[in-house]
Structures are given as structure tokens and as C-alpha cells.
Amino acid sequence: MIRIIQYLLLPAILVTGVSASKPPSVHCEGIYCRETEDRDWHVRITGEIVSPAGIYVIATSIDGHVLVRRKIPRGEYPAESPYQVTVPKDGVTGDYLLTVFGKQKDLGGINLPYTDLPFEVYGKEVNGRTFLHVMPYGSADGLYFKLSSGVKELTITQGNAAWTLLAQDGSVVFDVREEGEQKGKYWTGAFTGEPGKTYRLGKQLYWFFASPRLYVAASPDRWFEPDRRLTLDPSWWRQGKR
Fold it and tell me: Which whole number is the average pLDDT over 207-221?
């Protein structure tokens, strides 16, 4: 099985000077979305998938039910003509988990957001930490976050590049060069923020681990804290295709 994250691959080209007006692509273990009113909603893929095998997308509910499992073929999908999968109105609302299997070069070509639901965040805690890969390099200051409930201190580790965290207005609230430490090529810092306050990732963050958990969104109004019980049951493949 191809994992959503190719842990040992780094971007071949580090692009600087990227505008924060267009959200970057994000590689992570899971994408969460929230349906606040019962309606048809859609998984909407825009961008370019270049691998002949395409990608595979699975959407699951809190009870492990598979709402969507779909191979999305190679191709270009502009914003005005996305690859779209409908999740029918079913009398239920709540949080859902999207799991995407594919190669790094494909995931890096998909534009955010993945759905037309009002809330969508990226990042899934695995063994006490969250892995995020933001592409292109220099675009992370287009991603927003809040501290999760019960999290008083967020520890971030990244190799090769020092990093910052920003307030929503773009002012620096944490600089790892001043408040953290460097061990070898790794920069680590522990950030203590205010509960409920919105922050931004500095543009230097592009390939990093956060502990214990971190959810990021493409805009402040799309951020929410998902139900942590959401997971992909290993038996998902036994359920019928939709």
C-alpha cells in the first residue's frame, strides 16, 4: 500500500517568495472536515495528478462507515471543472476523515480545499505527534491554527531550516532561533499560546513534526477541532464501493 506520506522525500526545489494568497498543498496522514447541516456534499479535487496510477481517496465517518472510496485518475482538474465525488444527504451530520493514498508529486499538485464543506483541517496525530509537509516551500504562512483543547504547549521540530510562528496579523510570536534550540540539523522549539487564539505557520515551516497534535487550515474560518475518534479502520476495503 502506498502511504500518503513519503517520509524520506524532500522537495527537489525550494521555491521562495511564494504568495500566501493561494493556499499551499499539504501532505499529512489525514484530512478532517465537518458537515454542520445535512446536505449533499462533495470531495472536489483540483490541480494536477501526474502519476499513471492516480490517487485513491477514502472518506469515513465516526462509526467507521465508508462514505466514499474512489480512484481518481491522472489528469488536470481546473477549479472550474474539478474531479467531483458526491456524498449524498443521509440524515446525519458531523465530522469525517479523508485519507488520501498517492505519491508525493501527486499530492503536491492538489489544491486546497479537498471538499466544499465549511470546515476543513489537515494533520492527524500518530503515536503522539503530527507530521506535515507543506509545498511549495515558502507558502506555509497561508496556513492557520489554534491550540487543540488540552494542549498547553506545542513542540515543533524541523530539520535544515529555522522557523517562526506568527500571529494572525503576521507579526512574529515565536522564533526558534531565539526561544528554541538547534541540535545538529534539527531546530526544536516549544510554543505556549493562548487557547482559542488564531496563529499562522511561518513560511519557513515546510517539513516538520508537531507534538502532541496540530491541525492547520487554509483560512481562519475553516479551522475546527475534529473528533479524535475518527480513524481509518483496516477493514475499510471490505465495505462496498461508492
Answer: 96
pLDDT value at position 87?
92
Of the candidates 19, 61, 13, 21, the residue with the CA atom closest to the CA atom of residue 41: 61
Q: Which residues of 112-145 are buried (b: 16+ CB within 10 A; e: fewer)?
A: bbbbebebbbbbbbeeebbbbbbbbbbbbbbbbb
- What is the set of domains in the chain, with CATH numbers? 24-120 (2.60.120), 123-222 (2.60.120)
CB 60 within 8 Å of CB 96: yes
Q: What is the DSSP string of 111-140?
A: PSPSBSSSEEEE--EETTEEEEEEESTT-G
Q: Vertex 225, ends 219 and 229: CA angle to 5°?
A: 140
Contacts of 217 by beta carbon, 8 Å cutoff, 6+ apart: 119, 120, 121, 122, 143, 144, 145, 223, 224
What is the rounded end-to-end Cα distance, in angstroms, of the chain? Answer: 20
Residue tagged 528554541 (cell numbers)? 180
Instruction: Please tell me the predicted confidence (pLDDT) of residue 13.
Output: 34
Q: CA 26 from chain center: how many Å?
A: 5
Distance CA 15, CA 133 (A): 14
- Note the pLDDT of residue 235: 56
